Amino acid sequence: xxxxxxxxxxxxxxxxxxxxxxxxxxxxxxxxxxxxxxxxxxxxxxxxxxxxxxxxxxxxxxxxxxxxxxxxxxxxxxxxxxxxxxxxxxxxxxxxxxxxxxxxxxxxxxxxxxxxxxxxxxxxxxxxxxxxxxxxxxxxxxxxxxxxxxxxxxxxxxxxxxxxxxxxxxxxxxxxxxx
Length: 179
Hints:
Elements: H1 9-36, H2 39-63, H3 75-85, H4 88-109, H5 117-164
Helix pairs in contact: 1-2, 2-3, 2-4, 3-5, 4-5
């Protein structure tokens, strides 16, 4: 059986140029929204950007051979963006949207079959896994900062207590103590 992946090169290049135009448009729109300082507008713009990126990646997947092409991995970039922007309650919506777009891209490319189904399921798991990893990373960073901040506050409290008692000596931390 033929294992080659059909690629529509010229339409894929045109699609990339359209993606660049949309990215430029959304960037200008983002700058205007940020300048106006509207939080609701920023959130809507972020959701529009995520949806546009999903459509662009799905179109590129369809034009480059469906899920048999490695281009579907670009949904990881969408997953990273979703992890930083979307609240947990919106995660299921964007995961289902991404899955539907990958399914549609696979159908549009004419490469959907039972052999591709495991790839579709693996792709469906990317967004929740990326968001979970992002949350773990953020909480680890937050805990590290919290621990260091708590240590500094305790040191400051001791120093202020000593100063209140008339002891104005300043302890100089060693390089091992200074994080």
